[in-house]
Amino acid sequence: MQKSLLVLLFFAGSIFSFNANAQTIESSIKPAAKNTGFKMDGYILWCPTVIKVGNTYHMFASRWPEQYGLGGWTKHSEIVRATSTELLGPYTFREVVIQKREGFWDNDRAHNPKIVKAGNKYVLYYISSANETGYASSSSIEGPWIRTEKLAMPFSNPAPLVKSDGSIYVFGRKSVNEIRVAQAYTAPAFNAKYTLLNEGNNLLPDSAQLEDPTIWWASGQYNVILSDFRGKATGIDKSGAQYASKDGINYKLISKKPVYTKTVLYDDGTSQTFRRRERPFVYVNDRAEVVAFFTSCLTQDADGKEKSWIVAQSVTNYVP
Fold first, then answer.
1. For the segment 28-65, what is each residue's pLDDT rounded down to a tens digit?
2. Do 84 and 76 meet the contact criterion of CB atoms below 8 Å apart?
3. CA–CA dist 193, 151 (Å, integer)
4. Is 265 in contact with 293 (CB distance < 8 Å)?
5. Residue 225 — φ and ψ, nearest 5°?
6. Could you give phi then psi for residue 8, rounded to 5 degrees?
7. HSE-CB for 138 with a 13 A CA cutoff
8. Model-level pTM greater than 0.90?
């Protein structure tokens, strides 16, 4: 058995033992305040990921000019950093962090960031074309960032988890014959070789498809929220579905009820139904409690112009 898989099984604990009374995050997500999150005039914002350094929260996100519409991500997406002294924001733009590079694996775009800390390094995973994931690392959250010269994993939508021994588990998706299957890779360190688990077979039950996973470790298991592509898990295309796994290979759907939909409730009693609501991200405190939930939300004005921003919602100390 491969060393990386032995570490994975040791870290996960007993396999296939789930809490029969487990509840999804849905009831713990609170209404959003309209003056929180992250907005930028003239830009579509997508793919939020947040980390706290000192007393400051740093959000990395994808952005591109609004004039190109949502489809502009394919050629114009770049990764930016914004900050706030409050977890829910509002966040203020600080800098462009990663742009596409000619002649390298990330020559098409820089998109779908996920920020983690591995040892004394900050590691920013991101994608370029479909099925291409790499990363950049830095000793400081403000850079400079050193990028990999070649892709690390041939899949997309990476959701990385740094384990207590410094090894890495990355959950994501790959398009195989136009079917978006869940896959996972492990590595003994962020800058080591990544090994595909389960021979690349779909990790989700019932041949479910996915986009946009976010991951955290709590209650002795891997916990994942993702976009239910084609709606096989929840019955609603691209609504939120929640899964868990003891071994990082065999995942179980927690509930058929969506954990989020396209409708966002606000704390003033109003609501808004977006045309697209995707890229969920959970922020977890040092007690393994989810305390904030971020999503990318897209609407269309009366003139047909697409606008998008990051919506932030408080979560009541959720533990699965």
1. 999 999 999 999 999 999 999 999 999 999 999 999 99
2. no
3. 11
4. no
5. -115, 135
6. -60, -45
7. 12
8. yes
Asked whether the beta carbons of 47 and 62 are under 8 A apart, the reply is: yes
Domains of the chain: 3-20+44-255 (2.115.10.20)
Please tell me whether residue 68 adopts helix, strand or coil conformation: helix
Which runs of consecutive H residues, i.e. helices, occur in the chain?
3-12, 73-76
Q: Kindly report the number of other CB atoms within 10 A of residue 302's CB atom.
A: 5
**Which residues have a Cβ under 8 Å from the Cβ of 193 and sit 6 or more positions away?**
187
Residue 300: both structure tokens together: 């269309």
User: Prior bond to 158 cis, omega within 30?
Assistant: no
Per the listing, tokens 């977006």 go with 274
What is the amino acid identity at position 260? Answer: Y
Amino acid identity, residue 187? A
Q: Which residues contact 199 (CB under 8 A, 6 or more apart)?
A: none
